[in-house]
């Protein structure tokens, strides 16, 4: 499995950019950067690994903003101690906090040799398997229907979900994004999302494509593989299984690009788009 993953990046340089853990004032930034990095990957044939975290937030998908009673849902999240933002893509909500690592594997995906959606998901799955799977702790990919943000490529061990995968495609670049529940109180996270849907959907809870969230179907990776994982150790294990002989990991490429005028201007534009998207939250008083 490790060799299969490495083969994709043969003779390539992989850029690495780590944003660490962001507070509320910077919540929009990783979403803005994802679009920029994805376009850059396609234009420059450059693979990128992007790590980021938010300190205590519920990230809503656009579908979440169409619940029956968003005001009540937002009040529930505030009561449970979470900030709220709306991401720049569809789907359903996820929690992000200091025990959850968000990772984007951003790759060039040229039109003449397009990787399919399932192939891209499988690439991320294989990366996780290469980093964390053992003979007795197999990582499987199938939908955990009562988890929050369920999807076909939910990753689980012994039926307990610890990660979900999404994609974003821009021209000749593809961002494969995963959230990893590494450590912390996963039951509390699940209960907060359940509370949100119960409050915002009322009698329609669990209907119309919204999950009937059961906190017990999710767990932390640390517990599932019986190892005391930290965010830094997870990052290291993920980077360690990237090719290090035929490919180079470079932390300077993106850092240098971020200082250019072109990137600065584009970041500003993307942040404005995120601010406009999140304006709708201000229309609800709770």
Compact overview of the structure:
This protein has helices at residues 2-7, 29-44, 70-79, 117-132, 186-201, 221-224, 231-240, 252-257, 261-282; strands at 13-22, 47-54, 56-60, 83-86, 94-97, 100-108, 140-141, 155-157, 160-170, 173-181, 248-250. It is an alpha/beta fold and 286 residues long.
Summarize the structure in words:
There is one protein chain. The chain has 286 residues and is of the alpha/beta class. It has a single domain, classed as BirA Bifunctional Protein, domain 2 (2-Layer Sandwich), CATH 3.30.930.10. The protein is 37% helix and 24% strand. The chain has nine helices and eleven strands. Helix 2 packs across helix 9 and helix 3 packs antiparallel against helix 5. The longest helix has 22 residues. The model has no long low-confidence stretch (mean pLDDT 93).
Largest sheet: 8 strands, mixed
The CATH superfamily is: Bira Bifunctional Protein, Domain 2
Structural class based on helices, strands and sheet pairing: alpha/beta
Task: Tell me which oligomeric state these chains represent.
Answer: single chain
Order of helices and strands: HEHEEHEEEHEEEEHHHEHH
Overall mean confidence score, pLDDT = 93
* Contiguous uncertain segments of 5+ residues: none
Strand content: 15-25%
Q: What fold name stands as the CATH topology?
A: BirA Bifunctional Protein, domain 2
**Radius of gyration of CA atoms, rounded to a whole number:** 18 Å
Question: What is the percent of helical residues?
Answer: 25-40%
Principal-axis shape equals globular
Alpha-carbon distance between the two ends: 49 Å
What's the number of domains? 1
Number of separate strands: 11
What would you say the CATH architecture is? 2-Layer Sandwich
Q: Please report the first level of CATH classification, the CATH class.
A: Alpha Beta
Strands of the widest sheet, in order across it, are 7-8-9-10-6-2-1-11
- The number of helices is 9
């Amino acid at each position: 499995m490790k060799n299969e993953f490495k083969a994709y990046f043969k003779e390539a340089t992989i850029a690495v950019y780590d944003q660490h853990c962001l507070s509320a004032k910077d919540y929009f930034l990783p979403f803005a950067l994802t679009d920029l990095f994805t376009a850059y990957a396609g234009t420059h044939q450059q693979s990128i690994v992007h790590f980021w975290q938010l300190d205590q937030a519920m990230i809503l998908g656009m579908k979440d903003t169409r619940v029956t009673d968003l005001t009540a849902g937002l009040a529930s999240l505030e009561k449970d101690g979470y900030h709220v933002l709306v991401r720049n893509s569809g789907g359903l909500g996820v929690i992000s906090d200091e025990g959850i690592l968000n990772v984007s594997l951003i790759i060039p995906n040229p039109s003449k040799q397009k990787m399919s959606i399932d192939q891209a998901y499988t690439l991320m799955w294989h990366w996780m398997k290469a980093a964390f799977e053992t003979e007795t702790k197999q990582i499987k990919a199938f939908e955990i229907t009562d988890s929050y943000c369920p999807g076909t490529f939910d990753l689980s061990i012994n039926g307990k979900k610890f990660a979900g995968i999404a994609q974003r495609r821009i021209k000749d670049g593809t961002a494969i994004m995963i959230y990893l529940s590494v450590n912390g109180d996963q039951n509390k996270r699940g209960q907060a999302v359940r509370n949100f849907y119960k409050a915002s959907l009322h009698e329609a809870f669990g209907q119309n494509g919204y999950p009937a969230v059961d906190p017990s179907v999710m767990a932390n990776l640390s517990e599932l593989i019986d190892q005391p994982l930290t965010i830094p150790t997870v990052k290291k294990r993920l980077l360690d299984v990237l090719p290090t002989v035929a490919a180079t990991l470079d932390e300077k490429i993106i850092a240098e690009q971020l200082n250019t005028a072109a990137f600065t201007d584009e970041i500003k534009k993307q942040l404005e788009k995120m601010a406009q998207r999140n304006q709708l939250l201000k229309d609800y008083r709770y």
